[in-house]
């Protein structure tokens, strides 16, 4: 395993740990590496019952990735209304949805060719 791949896998694992810590639901990791023109290597997607929980999950992800891996988010958006918060780590992009928004956007269907790993 190359060091670069190891770092990505650790980042995905840490993101999932943070989501689980804040009781995120329906966690799935999409491996996009074999898809031409994919925007990153991995998507991690989850949902939550409320905007408060969406924000709490996103904050926990930022906290744990910074504290444990010394990795800062490159870009983030969606904190204003917390229906869908996106955290961009470059090779890993995290989508934290409120349940209704996830059902509406059906992001997984857009990347149906990806390798899916369901966490819970």
Entry summary:
Helix content is 41%, strand content 28%.
Characterise the protein shown here.
The chain is an alpha+beta fold. The chain has a single domain (3-118), classed as Beta Polymerase, domain 2, CATH 3.30.460.10. The chain has 4 helices and 6 strands, in the order H-E-E-H-E-E-E-H-H-E. It has helices at 3-21, 51-69, 99-105, 107-110, and strands spanning 25-31, 42-48, 75-77, 84-88, 92-98, 115-118. A 6-stranded mixed beta sheet has the order 3-4-5-2-1-6. Helix 1 (3-21) packs antiparallel against helix 2. The chain is globular, with a radius of gyration of 13 Å. The mean pLDDT is 92.
Question: What does the secondary structure layout of this molecule look like, with pairings?
Answer:
Elements: H1 3-21, E1 25-31, E2 42-48, H2 51-69, E3 75-77, E4 84-88, E5 92-98, H3 99-105, H4 107-110, E6 115-118
Parallel strand pairs: 2-5
Antiparallel strand pairs: 1-2, 1-6, 3-4, 4-5
Helix pairs in contact: 1-2
Structural class: alpha+beta
* Major pleated sheet: 6 strands, mixed
How many helix segments?
4
Spatial order of strands in the largest sheet: 3-4-5-2-1-6
Number of DSSP strand runs: 6
Query: In whole angstroms, how far apart are the ends?
Result: 26 Å
CATH architecture: 2-Layer Sandwich
CATH superfamily: Beta Polymerase, domain 2
Helix content: 40-55%
CATH topology title: Beta Polymerase, domain 2
């Amino acid at each position: 395993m190359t060091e670069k791949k190891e770092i990505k896998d650790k980042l995905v694992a840490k993101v999932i740990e943070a989501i689980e810590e804040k009781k995120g639901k329906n966690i799935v990791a999409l491996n996009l590496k074999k898809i031409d023109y994919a925007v990153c290597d991995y998507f991690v997607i989850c949902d939550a019952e409320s905007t408060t929980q969406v924000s709490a999950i996103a904050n926990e992800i930022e906290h744990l990735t910074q504290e444990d891996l010394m990795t800062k988010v490159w870009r983030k958006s969606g904190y204003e209304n917390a229906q869908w918060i996106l955290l961009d780590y470059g090779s890993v992009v995290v989508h934290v949805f409120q349940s209704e928004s996830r059902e509406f956007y059906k992001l997984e269907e857009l990347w149906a060719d990806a390798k899916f790993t369901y966490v819970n």
